[in-house]
Amino acid sequence: MTEISSVSNATAKVYEGFERQREHYEQRKVMQEHHNKKIAVNKRLLEAYMVVLDRLEYYNKQRQIETAKAEQGRFLDVEVK
């Protein structure tokens, strides 16, 4: 009987080791999935930010053109008078 109990104890210890290892890898997998989701969200936020910057750059160029035309128009008005 003692041999059977010692074998079953050894088997239980090995099984516990496998169980801990499986839990460890499952936790790593969950952490990796979370990390991948964060990367995807950050990528989408960065793309949205770049779109906003492009719009702002276009707006600034248009505004500079309009300002230059207005300045030129004022200069011509002064000359004509």
Explain how this protein is built.
This protein is mainly α. It contains one helix and no strands. The chain is rod-shaped and about 110 Å long. The relative contact order is 0.04.
Low-confidence stretches: none
- Shape assignment: rod-shaped
Instruction: Describe the main β-sheet briefly.
Output: none
Helical segment count: 1
Arithmetic mean pLDDT: 86
**Percent helix range:** over 70%
End-to-end separation in angstroms reads 119 Å
What share of residues are in beta strands? under 5%
Order of helices and strands: H
Q: Roughly how many Å is the radius of gyration?
A: 35 Å
Structural class: mainly alpha
- Strands, count: 0
Brief rundown of the structure:
The chain is mainly α. 98% of the residues lie in helices and 0% in strands. The protein has one helix at 2-80.
What secondary-structure arrangement, pairings included, does this model have?
Layout: H1 2-80
Spell out the key features of this protein.
81 residues, mainly alpha, 98% helix
